[in-house]
Amino acid sequence: MNLEKIEKLARELIEEIGESPDREGLKETPKRMAKSFEKIFGGYGEDPKKMLTQFDGENYDEMIICKDIDFYSTCEHHMQPFFGKISIGYIPDKKIIGISKLPRLVEIFSRRLQNQERLTMQIATTLTDMLKPKGVGVVVNARHLCMMARGVEKQNTLMTTSYCTGLFKKNAKTRSEFLRLI
Ligand code: ZN
């Protein structure tokens, strides 16, 4: 990311909406915007494959769940934030990963221009591809500012998406156990 260029564009944007970028409160805003983009869109430079260190599961073969991981992402249609909670579950087959890696995975895929469906699917399929578990389930609950502040202006609408692989998809009992636990 070229922060200087983003700063320049942010200044133009402020001008274009009818503001004066040189007034006291806005003077440092382009710089702050550029800086915040580094975090908000920081997921592009990260490779999930490098991050998912695996351990021997020592025959543990029950469900592992990381529940209510907070996330902040940006909707690719309006460039407005959407945010909420993500729950991830998997049943290992020989390999497990450190539990802190699941929030890391959420960070990598949410800190990009996204839609909620793709975000849900990318987390589930990446975990499935890398860990080759018996199954993965991902549930995302989110509020979209593009829906709250504009468009239909609905404040309390929660959008839910889910994506399942393996046993979570094939076996209704596994799926309902996962949904009960989260
Ligand atoms: Zn949107």
Question: What's the topology here?
Answer:
Blueprint: H1 3-16, H2 29-40, H3 48-51, E1 54-56, E2 64-75, E3 81-91, E4 95-97, H4 101-110, E5 113-114, H5 116-131, E6 135-144, H6 145-148, E7 159-166, H7 167-170, H8 172-181
Parallel strand pairs: 2-5
Antiparallel strand pairs: 1-4, 2-3, 3-6, 6-7
Helix pairs in contact: 1-2
Zinc ion binds at residues 75, 77-78, 80, 144, 146.
Q: Classify the helix fraction into a percent range.
A: 40-55%
Structural class: alpha+beta
Give me the CATH architecture of the largest domain, please: 2-Layer Sandwich
CATH superfamily of the largest domain: GTP cyclohydrolase I, C-terminal domain/NADPH-dependent 7-cyano-7-deazaguanine reductase, N-terminal domain
Number of domains: 2
Bound molecules: zinc ion
In short:
With 182 residues, the chain is of the alpha+beta class. The chain is 41% helix and 27% strand. The protein contains 8 helices and 7 strands.
